[in-house]
Amino acid sequence: GIPITTDEVKLALEAQGAENVLILDLKGRLSNISHFVIGSGRSTRHIRKMCESIVTAMKARNWKQASGTAGIEGEKHDEWQLVDCNNFLVHLLLPKTRAQIDLEGHWNKDVLPTIQFSTNEKEYEANFQRLLEENPCPLEYMKEEDFGKPVALTRVRKL
């Protein structure tokens, strides 16, 4: 198959009405992801339709290396949805969610939060928990109705 490029995605998103689309260079920061394409949509439906168009384009090119061809990460009414394009990720968010999460600010830091991978599940969980405690999620982003199940809320609040 023929891979889709970040520039193609950016142009397609802008043509579909995405706002403030940017390509964030992550080379040297992640082992398997070279870029994020980040954009804002006017509604969750708008975000979903743009994500669907990316998945459709990858399928049309028979680009099976990208796990995004299997579908979009995030439910259809989520304020943040993601498409995995193999070596880059597309993040589409509502403007208020984008401002709260601040992917651009987070990934432009000189020193990024990291987690030491371990094949030992308990060790990895402990490392992950430490990462969450050291890098809290903004409280205004955590609302119980957004997470549904109490288990999910408990886990997120540890951020």
Description:
The protein is of the alpha+beta class. Helix content is 41%, strand content 15%. The protein is built from 7 helices and 4 strands. Strands 1-2-4-3 form a 4-stranded mixed sheet. The termini are far apart.
List keywords for this structure.
single chain; 159 residues; alpha+beta; four-stranded mixed beta sheet; 7 helices; 4 strands; 15% strand; disordered C terminus
The tally of beta strands, per DSSP, is 4
- Lateral strand order in the biggest sheet: 1-2-4-3
- Given as residue ranges, the uncertain stretches (5+ residues, pLDDT < 50) are 149-159
The major β-sheet equals: 4 strands, mixed
Helical content class: 40-55%
Structural class: alpha+beta
Rounded mean pLDDT is 84
The shape is globular
Question: Which percent band covers the strand fraction?
Answer: 15-25%
State the order of secondary-structure elements, H for helix, E for strand. HEEHEEHHHHH
Count of individual helical segments: 7
Quote the distance from N terminus to C terminus.
39 Å
Computed CA radius of gyration, to the nearest angstrom: 16 Å
Question: Could you give a quick summary of the protein structure above?
Answer:
The protein has 159 residues and is of the alpha+beta class.
Draw up the topology in text.
Layout: H1 6-15, E1 19-25, E2 35-40, H2 44-60, E3 80-84, E4 88-93, H3 95-101, H4 103-107, H5 121-134, H6 144-147, H7 150-157
Parallel strand pairs: 2-4
Antiparallel strand pairs: 1-2, 3-4
